[in-house]
Structures are given as structure tokens and as C-alpha cells.
């Protein structure tokens, strides 16, 4: 049994690492660095950073209250809300993008109303942000909610007996104590937004400089310019690793400060 | 003045308690874990919704099922030191104590100066800048007390404030509390399962068992005339209850577990239910049936021998006779008798040594 377990793990490690190695070893590093100056790459990089950061902020602003309420309240229809919040994680991204189009497109359910306010979402940078937020927000809510849930209820009660109303308790007790989870959730959401492909291309299209984020640029370059695709991919992998390391470091630092000597 | 009638129920547990506590007074609720002590405090603080009853403080209704009045916890003038460590881990001691004043909208400066003063009074000002994880159990408890008192609450609730501490710190803090509590202007309700704490800290005591107060009164009444097995256990005395049967020379109290010769007042009627209290120190143990004038001689097997704190100079000996008894003898006499579990001994005590009361 142990041999089989080790074998399976070895195969898994290979499966996970081989593609990365292939990506990094295909061209000499100098050549990859050179391609980074390519306008195609730079445009996509700039757009990706702007949109995924905006989507992260949107996910936090919209997701924090929901995460708090889901963690602290019982209400009718809570199950439905939970399902709704989790759905984007399991939907095929292209379906999500298509649904967004039907809802917020020019002829869509709410599209006309938006149009009346002069807001156009499909095939705009704003649309990219909406698609990324749609896809990323579940990751944030999930992490933040569990962060709030893990705060010992006795701290909330202590705050109440110290004359703090719920809003004050949420802001001055719950938020700081759930911060590691919130930071981790925000980082996960950012990573998800950065890598978002299907919903973005379906809802916002693939226009260089406007809606062509890095994953889209990789896909396009794959068919025309393999070296550019490699350079873009390497940058994405580096960013992803950076974010993942960030999650771990943030969790470690924040948690460590709290539990050291506990 | 705190006056409360509390009714509460959750599956497998229900509680119905009436209590009152004047300003400046300390009411100690004693009971085993699961008896409902903590629930009483939570109901008073508004952390648990009552089934019925009321909580009135100086005439104001904090909750009243009859009128529907209800103040949420943050609108009650209450200081609550919950069991265990509930200091906010992300704030230092000063921040913890200043939390309440800040929540009331007092400016940060003023809040911190009040917090400093409260820490000072609790003997905790030296640790103002430390986070809870940098504090020892006793230090945390002092900060928690400062936090609960900083707003000068009308009602102070203390849930096992000393239970998590090591013996030395516990003694020190207990002495501090015994000095401080009587000087506080608030009504204090303290919960404990420790007899020593209860007797050291309370003006009045109430013993709670299965969600009911089984005996309440001032300390002396409780010590001299316990009326429940729980209180007797906690005082370490033998308590029996049964009907009095008058005889030619004295009287017999027939408890469920055995009979005792007692002396009763003339006005106690034949067949009346009475309590009989036997102090373990008044019991003499011997190996052979004693040649004594003591009316009560009960033989039984030694079940357990436990040294008495603090130094074990005396030992408590549990006997499984009819009725079962606990005797207390010196360590020397226990050694002389060669006491050990399983040994048959005779316990003797005079009928006049049994305190009998209705």
C-alpha cells in the first residue's frame, strides 16, 4: 500500500511540475525577458493588473458584508444564498460569460437600463472587471466567511457586554480577528481574476488594449506567436506563484502574531 | 438593587431561579457544573433570551416578559467577566479596557485615561501595553476585571473568576477580590463551584442544583444549617434528613440511609421531618466496639481516606455504614488505627453532637 501511495504521489508531482518545467525550459531566460517588452505583452499585462485588482476590490467590497451575514446570521433562504454565492465556482466559465451577456448585454435583461445610464459593459474594460468579479467573488466570500465563523463567539459577546453595538463589534473585533482569512480570500480572488479566461472572452471579447487580458493574449499568441505566448505564460505563472506565496506569508504573519506563545 | 426572576429552557435542561442582590452586595451562586450557574449570568447580561420572568435593576426593566421590555446586552449597565480568557487578542491590555468607553462614544484620550485608572485599581497598570498572549492567567484576570469595571456598571457578573488559575495566584486574587468587592457600588453576582471561594467572597450565598436554587441565605445560615446534600457536601459535613421518632430517652431520626440518635427541641412533633448535621470532627473512630456513652455507634468499611488541605494533618475517612458517614481524624490517629480501605471500624458520636433543625 505504501509503495502505491508513494508511486501515485510521484506521478502527481510529475503531472504538476512537468508542464511548468516545459514552459520555463522552452526558451532561454534572456529571450523570454526580451519578449516581455513586446507591446502585446505589455498591454495585456497592464490591463490584467488593472482589471484583476479592480475585481479584487469589488469582490471585497461586495463580499465582505455577505460573508459576515452568512457567518453570523440564520435566516430563511440562507441555503439559496449560499448556493448562489458558490455557483460561479462550479459553472463552466463560458456559461457564466454567456449568462452575463444575456443579463447585462445591450439587449439583455438589465442591459437596457444600464445603457440608459450610459453604462456599457459587454466588450469594454469595465465588462472585463464585471466578469472577473463574478468569477472571483465566491472565493473571497468562502474564505472570509470561514474567517468570521472561526472568531470565538465569546469575543462577540464580550464586545456586547462592553456596550458595543453590532456594527462596532463587526468593525473593531470581528474584522481584525478574521483578517488573516480576509487577506487570504482577497489574494485568492485576485489570482482567480488574473487567470479568468472563459467568462471574460465570452462577455467582454478579445480586444487588445481594451479587453484582452493576459490569459486571452496567451490563447491568441498561441496561434500566431509562440514566443510571445511563452513570455506571457511565464509572467502569469510568476504572478500566480507570487500570489500563492503571498497568501501563505500573510496567513503566517497574521496568524503568527496572534498565536505566538499561545 | 438587582431583582430577577429567570425562566429558561433548552432541550434537556430547564431553569427557574429567583434572586436579588443589593448594590454593594455580593451574591455567590454555587453549584456543580451543569447546574445552570452560567446560564443565570448570561440571562442577566441579556446574552440568552429568557423564556419568562424579568430582570429589574433599580426599578428599570432590563427585561420583562409581562411588559415585553427587552434591553440588548450592549444597552445594559453590566460588567461581565466570562469564564476563561475573553480578552480581545488583537488589543493590548489598555485597548481592551478602553474598548467599553470607546463604544460609549467617549473620546479616545478620555477612554484611555479611564482605562489607565481602571487598570491601576485592578493592580494591572504595569501590563497596559501587553497583548493578552503576553500575560499570565492571573494578569489576564486582573485586566478582565478592569475591563468589566471601567464603565462603573450597576451589575457586575463574575463567572468562575479564579478557576483557571494556579493555586498561588488564585489565593492572591481571591484575597484581592475579597477586599475589593465589598467596596464596589454595584450589585455583584459571582458564580463558583468552589466552597472556599464562595465563603470567602459572598455576603449571601445561593446553592443551585439542576436549574433550581435549593438553598439561599447569608453565609452563616448556610454554614450552620445546610439544607441540601449539595451544600453539605461542599461544606464537608454529614447531612441527613428524615422523620423524628420520639423515644423514652431522646429521639431517633430515620433517614433513608440509616437512623441516628438525636436530641430535639420540645416543640418538634413526633414524625416531623428534620435535618441532622454531624460534624466529621465530632466522630471518633475505633477498631473495636467502643465502651462509650455515645449513643450513636455505626460500624462500616473504610472506603476512602483523603488528606485534608492545606497540609494533610487531618484526614477525611469515608465509611459505608448505615448511614454512610465521613469522619475526620488526625493523621496520627489514622496511622495508629492502621486505617486503610476495606478495614471495618466503628464510628461513635453523641446524640447531643448532632445538630437537628427543621
Short note summarizing the structure:
With 262 residues, chain A is mostly helical.
Please describe the biggest sheet of chain A, giving its number of strands, its sense, and whether it closes into a barrel.
none
Low-confidence stretches of chain A: none
Counting structural domains of chain A, the number is 1
**CATH class membership of the largest domain in chain B:** Alpha Beta
Provide the CATH architecture of chain A: Orthogonal Bundle
Written as H for each helix and E for each strand, in order along the chain, the element string of chain B is EEEHEEEEHHHEHEHEEHHEEEEEEEEHEE
Q: Termini of chain A, distance in Å?
A: 38 Å
The number of strands of chain B is 21
What is the fold-level CATH name, i.e. the topology of chain A? MetI-like fold
Task: Name the CATH architecture of the largest domain in chain B.
Answer: 3-Layer(aba) Sandwich
Number of strands of chain A: 0
The general outline of chain A is globular
| Range of helix content of chain B | 10-25%
Task: Write up this protein.
- The longest helix of chain A is centred in the first third of the chain and has 34 residues, at 39-72.
- Chain A has a single domain, classed as MetI-like (MetI-like fold, Orthogonal Bundle).
- Chain A is built from 13 helices and no strands.
- Chain A has helices at 2-25, 29-35, 39-72, 78-90, 93-104, 111-116, 125-149, 153-161, 166-177, 179-195, 198-204, 214-224, 226-259.
- Chain B is of the alpha+beta class and 358 residues long.
- Chain B has 2 domains: 2-233, P-loop containing nucleotide triphosphate hydrolases (Rossmann fold, 3-Layer(aba) Sandwich), CATH 3.40.50.300; 236-357, RNA polymerase II/Efflux pump adaptor protein, barrel-sandwich hybrid domain (OB fold (Dihydrolipoamide Acetyltransferase, E2P), Beta Barrel).
- Chain B has a 6-stranded mixed sheet, with helices on both faces. A 5-stranded antiparallel sheet of chain B has the order 2-1-4-5-6, covered by helices on one side.
- In chain B, α2 packs across α3, α2 packs parallel to α4 and α3 (108-121) packs across α4.
- Chain B is elongated and about 80 Å long.
- The mean pLDDT of chain B is 91.
